[in-house]
Amino acid sequence: MTRTRKYLMILAAAGLLLAVALAFLLTNLDWLVKTAIERYGTQATGTAVRVGRVAFSPTNGQGAIEGLTVANPPGYSAPHILSLDGISVRMSPRAFTANPVVIDDIRITSPRVVYEMNETHIANVDVLKKNLGMHRPAKDMREGKKGAKDAGRRLRIRRLVIENAKVDVRVAALGDRPRTVALSRLEMMDIGGRNGAPPEQVVKEIMAAILSEVSKEVSKAGASRLLENALERALRRK
Question: Mind listing the pLDDT tens digit for each residue in 165-221?
Fold first, then answer.
């Protein structure tokens, strides 16, 4: 067998393996995206992240994610702290195999958040912030980002919009009727930076922005004080 023929056989084998890999990627894309969201989301938040359904078209880069939920931390009555029923995604078809994976646009419509305070006056939002590392000094957060920069696949989101979000504010353990607070439209640009960031870090950045907005709007509405007063009245009745 000549050297040229050996090279041709090697190239043919490599091409066959690449074709098989691409076929697997395209035929299992929905499952791969669903698995990645649940894996990295759970790692970032410290609570279970689940997705109902993912539908992506590799030919035009359009996609939809339905039934995404983030479980409440232990000790709170509501099953989920965050429910995202409708998420639309737009990206280049070539981005699926790139690194970083660049998503052009994500739009989240009408998400629902439960802001719940327990008997010890600790809100579930604050627990999740701690899980995300939002209470760490800024220097520690930057070092954590730097250390993870080159680890595996990276993700960059050019634009993310969250609109028509509602927050149910309540003391779930006392059975109080929730008070609903509307969130302002939230728009984030260039998440992950030019070189992208590990998916877990991108999830943390998005969740941190949502939770900060929730805390701000709840505080503006005076709802946190209302919850504290309700707890104080309940304790006095005991």
Answer: 999 887 654 555 677 888 889 999 999 998 999 999 999 999 999 999 988 888 776
Question: Residue 103 and residue 97: Cα distance in Å, rounded?
Answer: 12
Q: What CA–CA distance (Å, rounded) separates 219 from 157? A: 29
Per-residue model confidence (pLDDT) at position 224: 52
Q: In this structure, what token pair is assigned to residue 33?
A: 């995206």
